[in-house]
Amino acid sequence: MVVDFNLMLSPGVADGVDPARLTGPLAARFADAYRAVEARREKGEIGFFDLPWTSETTRHVQEVADSFGQWFENVVLLGIGGSGLGAVTLRDALLAPHWNERDTEGRDYFPRLYVLDNPDPATVGPLLDRLDLRKTLFNVVSKSGSTAETMALYLVIRERLAVLVGEEKVRGHFIFTTDPEKGALRHIADAEKIPTLSVPPNVGGRFSVLTPVGLWPAAVTGVDIAALLAGAGAMEERCRTDKLLENPAGVLATLLHHATTEDGKPIHVLMPYSDRLRSFALWFQQLWAESLGKAGTGPTPLPAVGATDQHSQVQLFMEGPRDKVVIFLAVKVDGDPVAIPALHPEIVELGYLGGHTLAELLDSERRATAEALRQAGRPSITIELEKVDAATLGALFMLFQIATVYAGALAGVDPLDQPGVELGKRLTYGLLGREGFSPPSFGHADPRWRV
Ligand code: PA5
């Protein structure tokens, strides 16, 4: 994996950074941030760096996936935010396309994998009606064990299962992924002997894709989790240096932090030219937003996908406010490139396409978009991936997670907390009558200002 940041620098791009700064002040600032992160890591506060080396957990996850997990036709993960997005990303990137629509053979006899994150009755009800719940295992994923959306889904499903299979068999349809000691889910699991997987206490939700939160749904659908962790480990090793230009996560964090704070470019677009990595952009969005948006500062992550968004957002990226950096994800090889036949050679709009492949078209569009942005003076970064496989995805997760904690240190904010989501949670509890929480007054609500 290569992080190519030529198009962030002057004179290559008009709005670029002077390369001399990368060996001067920006390198010094990064070295400080690196040391701050290392200090927290040594204190045991940042656990995700060490996940590639936890082979005992990996073995356990694999065992539970190979045994219990394979008794079912469907696995439904209930989890939101960091407890759901990793599984979606892994499924969409690494499983065969349209996985849940394939027959058993098309899935190599592994189960279907659904992720319910939103408690939207219009999604939840129809899915539960459609699945044969007798053949379905529910993986309830909540580190805290108290997230309203996830717990409500658990209650709805538990009751449906009880009606269908009887109360005594309900526990056989659940596996919980939660804190090793605390929380309601742990309590229920202990009381009812429901199988569990643990989330290390020092790994927060959005940094937990390489814990059983992401590993188990991946393993149960046949993903090579050892390769995933090996890729992550290789990236973690590459980032063990305070020398800015040798540390890919350092370069990413430093340039994006600089763009936000000194260049007026706080909007960071992640644009994979790959359908399989569309969900990775959503995973990044949560990681970047919830980690860095605090204390009145922070970048706004914006997911996009190439080439689709060339017909949607690229107009804005080219001619809108000069407030963005586009991070392209370029994939060298992704299966059959699909030849374009040389039909209609006499029609100029079609003739030039024949003899090329869809892969060539897609990659040419990416290169052309980066160049068009450059000509318009707008910076971009390209992350080049050999292919989309477990090892590459592991490396990509680790790259962005490390970049996030560096970016937090550079900005002087704590990337591991999310105090801004607490008030909304408390007000929701009040509205639903949870003990100890009062309903909000909703401030000023004048009927004249409703139409
Ligand atoms: O990144 C985070 O910490 C959050 O997005 C959480 O993952 C999310 O709120 C779900 O929390 P929990 O796993 O406790 O249900």
Short description:
The chain is an alpha/beta fold. The protein has 17 helices and 10 strands.
Provide an overview of this structure:
By secondary structure, this protein is of the alpha/beta class. Helix content is 44%, strand content 12%. Helix 3 (55-66) packs parallel to helix 9 (212-220). The mean pLDDT is 96. Bound molecules: 5-phosphoarabinonic acid (PA5). 5-phosphoarabinonic acid is lined by residues 80-83, 142-144, 147, 150, 204-206, 290, 418.
Question: Topology, please?
Answer:
Blueprint: E1 2-4, H1 19-23, H2 25-42, H3 55-66, E2 74-78, H4 85-94, E3 112-116, H5 121-130, E4 136-141, H6 148-165, H7 167-170, E5 174-178, H8 184-192, E6 196-198, H9 212-220, H10 225-238, H11 248-262, E7 267-272, H12 278-292, E8 300-303, H13 314-319, E9 324-333, H14 348-351, H15 358-375, E10 380-387, H16 390-411, H17 422-431
Helix pairs in contact: 2-16, 3-9, 4-9, 4-12, 10-16, 11-16, 12-16
The chain binds 5-phosphoarabinonic acid.
5-phosphoarabinonic acid binds next to loops.
| Uncertain runs | none
Number of domains: 2
The CATH class name of the largest domain reads: Alpha Beta
CATH fold descriptor of the largest domain? Rossmann fold
Distance between the termini: 53 Å
